[in-house]
Amino acid sequence: MVPFYAQTNFSLSPDKLAAVLQQSERAAVESLRGYGFEVMGPADFRERLEHADAATLFDDGIVLHAGLSTYFEPAKSSNGPSLEVATLTRLNQEGALGVDVLLFGEVVYYTETLCNTDPNTAKSREAPRTSTTSTPCVVSHFQAKLVYVSTGETMWFNRAFLETYPPPATPDAGAATITQTVARTFDGPDGLADFHLPDPVPTPDARVAAE
To answer: Which of 66, 127, 158, 166 is 20 to 30 A from 60 in CA distance terms?
Structure first.
């Protein structure tokens, strides 16, 4: 599992943003293990990269600044695969990863704020602090991708949005909302309940031996 990222800090302090990302990672590990995956956490994955002298290549070639949905997709031009796809396949060929699949996760949005509870609105949304129809809430949005390292392309992608109204909105309530959001990403009809890894792609040497 690769360390998760966010495109912005959502007006959170560095420590608070780090806590949100770490809670998301912990929730993802728990969910994946619940589905029977053998999980290597972000810290262990970084250690593996450093042990293989591959951390710099990984960091230079897999730079995620935009939305996760735009990465690890098939080439859209004759220029060849994107940088992150080419980097992942190279690292796999060099044996630096030691895994078949990587999970990438993005915290799309997170805030602890006031939400509009006016029954005349279709959906509750963040409300002005002066609103009389507002209540403390936690808003969380997360998305994740499983990427097959032999091709560098997406195998599975899903996202979840959650808005909760804990009484009151406390740090513990925020952590619980994050955990629920991540769990919902892996659950449901588009989740991992019926997901199966494809058969490994044979290496060139293996293909020659088979022939």
So the answer is: 158
